[in-house]
Amino acid sequence: MADFPPVPLTLEGSFLLHQFFRFDWKAWRSCADGEREKIAAEAVATLNRLERREAGAPIQTALFSQLGHKGDLVLIHFRNSLEALNQVELDLAQTELYDFLELRHSYVSVVELGLYESTRKSYEAAANLEQHSPEWKAEIAATLARQSAAMAPRLYPAVPEARYLCFYPMDRKRGEQVNWYTVPFAERQRMMHEHGLIGRRYGDQVKQIISGSIGFDDWEWGVDLFADDPVVFKKLIYEMRFDAVSAVYALFGQFFISVRLPIEKLGSWLSGSL
């Protein structure tokens, strides 16, 4: 493996935008009842339009009520382009409810599937070709095209219809003593395989969506965990801390925990009730 390129192949799919808002409750309470109802109705109509392209289509925008001091509302958007995500931002900004929202944090990324194991097979299959030659690139591109077609449902997922969301960003360490990117490919492949086995054990309880953000945001990856039991987030993440990929090579950002807020219940939430 020493003669192979060190970079694992990846597949990319939907672009993601996470928005974390603080709600101005004081300004909201100063509005007349009729005005609040009108503003809420307009916001619900806009969010319903953003939620699905058409009736019965996969969910591409979801709303959550956030716990803790970091914010009040979370919006997650899955789209097929950055332009579409930017349009979502513009659409939301046109609503009157947006005047009561303060954007405290956001995160931009793209669904990513890492291919450590198939990367090795692909590089071995192209071993008789000069690396980065047109023929080599064509061989790798053909492999990625086949993989993309086979994994389309994972690359372009709907927002899972789970009750709870845990989101956090993360990096791989690049320090002088511990640097993930200087570890030989085969060793990284082995560690990632073992790391993935832990996640798969929780597959019936947690839907995990990994998105890459190198060049898009301040961290290297964003992790979304969706489940109907929030305690499983703690169990999964805690168990992974004992794995070398996390214990030795991972850095974590802030964690955000929230409860699904069906769009039709936004009016109730604005009245102080889930």
Helices, by number, come to 10
Kindly report the spatial arrangement of strands forming the biggest sheet. 1-3-2-9-5-7-6-4
% residues in beta strands: 25-35%
Helix/strand-derived class?
alpha+beta
Write a structural description.
The structure is a single chain. This protein is of the alpha+beta class and 274 residues long. It has an eight-stranded antiparallel barrel. It is built from ten helices and nine strands. It has helices spanning 25-29, 33-51, 82-93, 116-125, 134-150, 152-155, 185-201, 231-241, 244-247, 266-270, and strands at residues 10-23, 61-66, 73-79, 101-114, 164-172, 207-212, 221-227, 250-252, 256-260.
What does this entry show, briefly?
It contains ten helices and nine strands. With 274 residues, the protein is an alpha+beta fold.
Key phrases:
274 residues, alpha+beta, eight-stranded antiparallel β-barrel, 9 strands, 26% strand, elongated
Write the layout of secondary structure elements.
Elements: E1 10-23, H1 25-29, H2 33-51, E2 61-66, E3 73-79, H3 82-93, E4 101-114, H4 116-125, H5 134-150, H6 152-155, E5 164-172, H7 185-201, E6 207-212, E7 221-227, H8 231-241, H9 244-247, E8 250-252, E9 256-260, H10 266-270
Antiparallel strand pairs: 1-3, 1-4, 2-3, 2-9, 4-6, 5-7, 5-8, 5-9, 6-7
